[in-house]
Design brief:
By secondary structure, this protein is α/β, with parallel strands linked by helices. It has 27 helices and 11 strands. Strands 1, 2, 3, 4, 5, 6, 7, 8, 9, 10 and 11 form an 11-stranded mixed beta sheet that branches. Keywords: Antiport, Ion transport, Membrane, Transmembrane, Transmembrane helix, Transport.
């Protein structure tokens, strides 16, 4: 055989092998999963390098490897199953980022913009899609996709420091309204397409939907609070409970004849009340969702796209062009109209438009459901992907360009929390109380992007120090480091040998330039401590930075209310504003309500609180009488009672804690307490 013949034969075999591989999808589970993991790793990194959202890279990768691309992967039952889980998780996380409190502030602006950014896209979208040949139901469903939006550019606004501006508040509230309405439209259109939109459907759906929503938004937080109180010590059980909640509520949506994605969204809105934003549990949920479940869904959506249709079917370009144009126009008009009504300038209007133009989560969810029930065809899926591509690129760019022109809001709370949370020192000695102390310190440090400094001190009097003591120190610091890493918090553990606990803490605080010291307290003082002062008193006396003396009988994440109690004299103190800012920060991060109580002596005058930065609806209750009695009367389980401590003399002999905190602690052993000492 000649060399040319051998080369020709080799080329034929090679072509045959490539054709066979490309025509036969990979079915072995190991290489399938390996390929998907490779896509999850590489695609977002490549697209972020060229300044495109990673979501676009995952979708396009699904197009390439899917049945309409190279055919390497089939959209089989496994992909559909994992994609469905990812879809539910995507809507669940959208609910986790939604707060009902967003509607409390600037509610009028949120309502106006919310209805405007729903109705205008519905009207324009329905008319445009019917004009290019869609039937009424399909046109309404696609229009509902235009109405919903994803706050893809929210991190950009956060980085620019405009999160507390009126334009952001109005957009956040409007997003909640338009997304819920769009999902309800989806539910009704699906039923109409299936031929079951009858009087009996309405008679069943409306009461069922009301009961279902009430049980989800009212009952689920209470069930979750009970579960976390009983089993909150088991992190695995907490995460499993959240996942079980997602799928139970999603299945419940099917039982009341609405789409499961609506249930997943409501489950997120309900459960977010229980999980602090900076907690390890929230970090695990977001990490698992963003790195595993949601990418599966995005890849599976890409597999639905058939790029050949763009060339085989000229109408595909028309559908894609119309969808992109309508999506942009239908979001600009409400932003412009509402902005003019609110008195916003053009920069604010463009920021509102930039935030609301992105189409991703709800759009993908709705179009996937519609395609699965054959309400829309592949042309619409292709057009949706084109719309997502354009709007996901435009949204961060528009928000960044015009957001830079807005004046950043001065956030006093963030400034105060930031100064406190820069370097937080936590002495750890007792494994049973270490977790709550660390969670409080982590919450303050992470909100300021600061550093946690867990400290354990061995006393040099016990020289030579035993190997058991050294091993215990190492174990306590390792546990603290592990808890901090689970919350993605900067941590620097410190082991030290010193002559006394209080001197060791004071020296480390000075050497490491800490911004805050967090100490544990048992809730009472011995006779000797009352007379001569205990370790905590000496720590406060020696410290040149704020000290929080804390007692947590229950996990800190169970907190439902931050209760700041103060006297008229304390209200006039220079450190009182810091106490208010600390209370605001704790309430925000723990997603708890904030209550202020001013106790006035029988003959005392009431101090008017001014320039506190508190929302107008923050409850401030004023009562007359004995401080301990009045505070004890109003305390509830799962409260954090915040008191403002004072140091009259730098070297006073008696206990600094005094009678009031100990009396309250003894009468309410189930209530958490924080006594804040701010240096003069």
């Amino acid at each position: 055989m000649t060399p040319d013949a051998i080369a020709t034969l080799g080329q034929s075999i090679s072509n045959y092998w490539i054709a066979s591989v490309l025509s036969t999808p990979i079915k072995d589970p190991v290489p399938v999963f390996l390929m998907i993991l490779g896509i999850m790793l590489i695609a977002p990194l490549l697209f972020e390098k060229i300044r495109l959202p990673g979501i676009v890279g995952l979708i396009l990768a699904g197009v390439v490897v899917g049945p309409n691309g190279l055919g390497l992967l089939a959209r089989d039952n496994t992909i559909v199953l994992l994609g469905t889980v990812g879809l539910l998780f995507l809507m669940f996380m959208a609910g986790l980022e939604t707060s009902l409190d967003d509607l409390k502030y600037n509610a009028d602006k949120a309502l106006i913009f919310g209805f405007a950014t729903f109705l205008v896209p519905m009207a324009l979208g329905t008319g445009a899609m019917m004009a290019i040949g869609y039937n009424l139901l399909a046109a309404i469903l696609v229009a509902s996709c235009f109405a919903s939006h994803t706050l893809l550019a929210l991190p950009v606004a956060s980085k620019l420091g405009i999160m507390r501006s009126q334009v952001l508040t109005a957009t956040l509230g409007g997003t909640l309204i338009t997304n819920i309405l769009a999902l309800l439209v989806l539910a009704v259109v699906v039923r109409a397409h299936q031929g079951s939109l009858t009087l009996s459907f309405w008679l069943f759906m409306i009461p069922s939907l009301i009961i279902y929503t009430f049980l989800t938004l009212w009952g689920l937080p209470r069930l979750g609070r009970w579960f976390f109180q009983r089993f909150g010590h088991d992190e695995g059980a907490e995460f499993t409970f959240v996942l079980a909640t997602l799928f139970v509520v999603s299945y419940g949506a099917e039982l009341v004849q609405i789409e499961p994605i609506i249930g997943a969204f409501l489950a997120g809105v309900a459960i977010t009340q229980l999980i602090p934003q900076l907690s390890p549990l929230m970090n695990r949920i977001q990490f698992i969702g963003n790195t595993l479940f949601v990418p599966f869904f995005l890849i599976s959506v890409g597999m639905l796209v058939n790029p050949r249709i763009l060339f085989q079917e000229p109408r595909a370009l028309v559908v894609s062009g119309v969808m992109v144009a309508v999506a942009i126009i239908a979001k600009f008009i409400p932003a412009w109209g509402a902005g003019k009504l609110f008195g916003f300038n053009f920069d604010n209007i463009m920021v509102m438009f930039g935030l609301s133009v992105a189409q991703a989560a709800s759009t993908l969810a709705a179009i996937t459901v519609a395609f699965n029930i054959e309400l829309v065809d592949q042309l619409t899926v292709n057009g949706t992907i084109a719309m997502i591509l354009v709007t996901c690129i435009a949204s961060p760019w528009v928000t960044s360009q015009w957001g830079q022109k807005l004046k950043p809001e001065v956030n006093t709370t963030s400034h105060q929390a930031g100064s406190l949370g820069d370097r937080v020192l936590v002495p750890v000695a007792n494994p049973s109380t270490e977790d709550n102390l660390l969670q409080l310190a982590i919450l303050l440090a992470k909100s300021a992007n600061g550093t946690l400094l867990p400290l354990h001190i061995l006393l040099e009097q016990s020289n030579p120090i035993s190997p058991e003591a050294k091993a215990r120190q190492s174990q306590l610091l390792s546990t603290a480091e592990m808890i901090a890493h689970a919350s993605v918090t900067n941590v620097t553990p410190i082991g030290r040998i010193d002559e006394s606990i209080d001197k060791g803490i004071a020296r480390v605080a000075e050497e490491k330039q800490v911004s805050l010291v967090v100490c544990g307290w048992k809730g009472y003082s011995s006779y000797q401590e009352n007379l001569f002062g205990g370790v905590i008193d000496k720590i406060v006396q020696r410290s040149s930075v704020p000290v929080l003396v804390t007692r947590f009988p229950l996990p800190i994440e169970h907190t439902t209310r931050v209760f700041l109690a103060f006297t008229t004299q304390q209200a006039y103190a220079s450190s009182f504003e810091q106490s208010i800012q600390l209370a605001k920060s704790l309430a925000t991060e723990l997603k708890a309500s904030l209550q202020l109580l001013q106790v006035v002596s029988v003959r005392g005058a009431t101090a008017e609180l001014t320039d506190t930065g508190l929302p107008a609806d923050t409850p401030i209750q004023r009562v007359r009488g004995n401080f301990v009695r009045q505070v004890s009367r109003l305390l509830k389980p799962n409260d954090i009672l915040l008191l403002n401590g004072t140091v009259e003399h730098k070297h006073q002999l008696f206990s600094l804690l005094g009678h009031a905190p100990e009396a309250i602690a003894r009468s309410h052993p189930e209530v958490a307490m924080i006594i804040a000492y701010f240096p003069k």
